[in-house]
Design brief:
2 domains; two-stranded antiparallel ribbon
Length: 166
Amino acid sequence: MLTMSAITKPRTKVLRSVVLSMRLPVESGKRLKRLANRHGWTASDASARLVEEGLRRSEFAFIDFRDSAAGRQACIQGQTLAVWEVILLVRSYHGDISAVARHLRWPAAKVEAAVNYAAAFPAEIEEALAENEATDFERLKRMLPQAMEFAPKEAARHRHAQAPPR
């Protein structure tokens, strides 16, 4: 028998919880345990996370969850961007959802979905934005060894113009 324990997020406090027992088919229980092992969770933690993600999917249009180098993140269905990345764009466009939708070539409803999700879970989104702000290229290179730094041609040309002759 599995019980639903506290839902936790890395580097955040434990939320209040309720214990619910549930029965799963044997094969589902095995798959749940494999998922839990892959992430270093208990089966109870994995089931709680999956239930929470399922609830959020049912409550918010166009929201999905994916594993990434930064951990499990809320993303926009059918797209490569996490919700926090869409919010970063929304802020850079001063809240103009239609401008962000044009920029991404998305329907405005997908941008609105990210805004709605962020409004419901502001601490989650702010944490991701803060982590992004604190990440420099060296830290990124540790997470993604294949990462390459590049500069726009104008910046590279300016740098070469200032370089001393060899």
